[in-house]
Here is the input.
Amino acid sequence: VQLVESGGGLVQPGGSLRLSCAGSRFTISTYAMSWYRQAPGKERELVATISSTGGSTDYARSVKGRFTISRDNPNNTVFLQMNSLTPEDTAVYYCNARWSWRNFWGQGTQVTVSS
Here is the structure.
């Protein structure tokens, strides 16, 4: 079982990035999927969650209105569209899959917002 994130990088304040998380050797369609982030010296925090069907989403207050989580179950992938980025969004972003007692993490992708 593997989750592989991609799409991170360096972006200027006000810019956008789109993160992807691909499931490998398992099917994500039954899993609630989430994005977390961890900035240096801070605890890991939940950024956004999407239900298994995509019918329900939830966001941290700090990203609501700027970030959008979505999923493409046939292609076993989850996305995080991040707009209007600020330096406070700088962190390692992790993908998470959760279903019953099953809980899987990706290796993380670095997002740096700086001029």
Q: What stands out?
A: The two ends are 37 Å apart (CA to CA). The longest strand covers residues 91-99.
